[in-house]
Amino acid sequence: MSSLAKRKPPSLVMLSTVFVLFWLVVAAFPFLWTMWGSFKVEGDFFSRADWMNAITGPVTQRQHGSAFTLAGYEGAWIQQEFWRSVVNTAIVTLFVVIISLTLGTLGGYALARSGFKYTFWLLMAALVFRAMPHVTLVSGYLLPFFQLNIWGFLPTTIIVLVAINQPFTLWMLHSFFLSIPKDLDEAAMVDGCTRFQAFRLAIIPVMWPGVITTGLFSFLLAYNDFTVTSMLLTQENATMIPKINSFLGSTQEEGKVMYAVAAVVSAIVPLFALILFFQRQIVSGLTAGAVKG
Amino acid sequence: MARLQLKNVNKRWGSFVGVDNFDLDIADQEFLVLLGPSGCGKSTTMRMIAGLEDVTEGEIWLGDRMVNNLEPKDRDISMVFQSYGLYPNLSVYENIRFPLRVRKVPKEKHRDMVMKAIEMVELQDFMDRRPAELSGGQRQRVALGRAIVRKPTVFLMDEPLSNLDAKLRVSTRAQIKNLQSKLKTTTVYVTHDQIEAMTLADRVVVMNAGKIQQVGTPTEIYDTPANTFVASFIGSPAMNLVEGKLEKGVFQGDGIHVEGLPAGPSGNVTLGFRAEDAEIVEDQGQIAAPMYSIELLGEASMITWRLGGALVSIKTNKEYRAEIGDIVHARIPASICHLFDTASGERIDDR
């Protein structure tokens, strides 16, 4: 019976397979192309003579004696001190995630459990701030930051990124908390917990998928941010994305654009690793609110 | 072990009155049932005792402590929730151990105490399972086990059986009754099911619209309901209530005529009697009216008339046969009748 239901016309199978393959190539091509090209020199990757040079790499062969070279990575990481940006990004994302999640879980829980009407307006206000373009926030902050002499430091950027990110984490965690029945907190409180212990011992253990999903979104926001970091950080405090941008902006010297390509690949790899590692939690987190247990 | 007193307890949300002047003294080891339709304030009363809801006015005393301003954890109570409130990430064993863990009971005592509770609720075979892998009845037993593990002074149970199917409800009910008599802990039990109330309670509190309607033993509540609300809420079927006029001990209603009632009250009254107290007769009955319906219940048949606006039912033997529309007589001796004032609903005979 099931085989009958599963049987589809061969033309449909063909069509869908071709479509999926086509889509896969379109979606993955830029990444693969960049990754391949990052091991070549500029003369190959940006070759004017023949685009096939980017694949075969004759200039790379001539200059380095092999079709692949780590020259781009060496230049970016060692010569241009890209590792500094990596460290800066690590600091910024780590603190943005920790602060957003701490405030987000506490605030989201409070909003989800509060019986007052103003919680609705607080959430609405959060939505408005979330909808605003990031640059409006930054332009407002710039002058006071200069005058207070705190412009250019990592903590300043962390605060602004948290401010941009917080409305979203609040919303997301709030709806996760709403999906957890109130009985659970009350049972915990009768069993001997304070409100905070009930939150920590009874609610958070059930909330892990939600916390991880929200944390991942906060991480991506901080990791990928360009508007805030490029305007608020000095050159030596720059995170990866503005640093890559500065490589691209200085093409007068040959080979420098390859630093950007190598840096881009370096910035992508951790993202793949992270998503692959957390994929199960992310999927269960994204669907957790949808069905009630 | 404690006596629980509620002194003129009120709960208001703005102008809405949830609980109105609840005043009750619950003796040590008593099994008290709060009974009423949904929204009558019975759960709110229980939540105020637990400390999950603030008291607007009045005092709650547990033993010799006024507990109004104490956190739930400091009141030494335990509670069983309608939806169980189990910790889904913990095993049955850990769920029951949770109160001991948070209350910092010395670790070496945990195993003994938890095992004892698990035995009492008969969950030995399910210790390592998660709540999601249990049936409804088993989950409710875990919740019971968690409530009894640390011997609190008062048990609170908020409709613990209403999520179970009918058969399981009967067996779990018996189990709760048995547990309470073994543990001798003061218990407050909330339900909207009058059979649960009758079978479990030492005393029943019938509530409606935030007010106490009557407090008494199940027998008192059944035999002498204080007003028409209690009369129509207790018993299955509920008490028959017919409106009519009373004069010099003679009640006259539509299709019903009863003599020999108390001579004192007069005017518009509601006459009440129970279906199982009256009987069908050939003729000369106090009721003489066309039959509205006949239903076979199994052990008996139920004959129904329509008198005035009300449906009136009487139980008779299961062999009884009559056609709908036939004139059927019933004997209603004055001794089984209850009299209520029609306007206020209050009882006016002095039983």
What does this structure look like?
Chain A is an all-alpha fold and 293 residues long. Chain A starts with a helix and ends in a 5-residue tail after the last helix. In chain A, helix 10 crosses helix 12. Chain A has 2 domains: 74 residues, no CATH class; 208 residues, Orthogonal Bundle (MetI-like fold). Chain A is 78% helix and 0% strand. The longest helix of chain A is centred in the last third of the chain and has 33 residues. The C terminus of chain A is likely disordered. With 351 residues, chain B is of the alpha+beta class. Chain B has 2 domains: 226 residues, 3-Layer(aba) Sandwich (Rossmann fold); 112 residues, OB fold (Dihydrolipoamide Acetyltransferase, E2P) (Beta Barrel). Helix content of chain B is 24%, strand content 34%. Chain B is built from 8 helices and 20 strands. Chain B has a 6-stranded mixed β-sheet with strand order 6-7-8-3-9-10, with helices on both faces. In chain B, helix 2 packs across helix 3 and helix 3 packs across helix 4. The longest helix of chain B has 18 residues. In chain B, 42% of the residues are buried. The mean pLDDT of chain B is 90. At the A-B interface, helix 11 and helix 12 of A face strand 6 and helix 2 of B. Chain A: This is Carbohydrate ABC transporter permease. Chain A: Keywords: Cell membrane, Membrane, Transmembrane, Transmembrane helix, Transport. Chain A: InterPro entries: BP-dep_ABC_trans_perm (IPR050901), MetI-like (IPR000515), MetI-like_sf (IPR035906). Chain A: Belongs to the binding-protein-dependent transport system permease family. Chain A: It comes from Maritimibacter fusiformis. Chain B: GO terms for molecular function: ABC-type transporter activity; ATP binding; ATP hydrolysis activity.
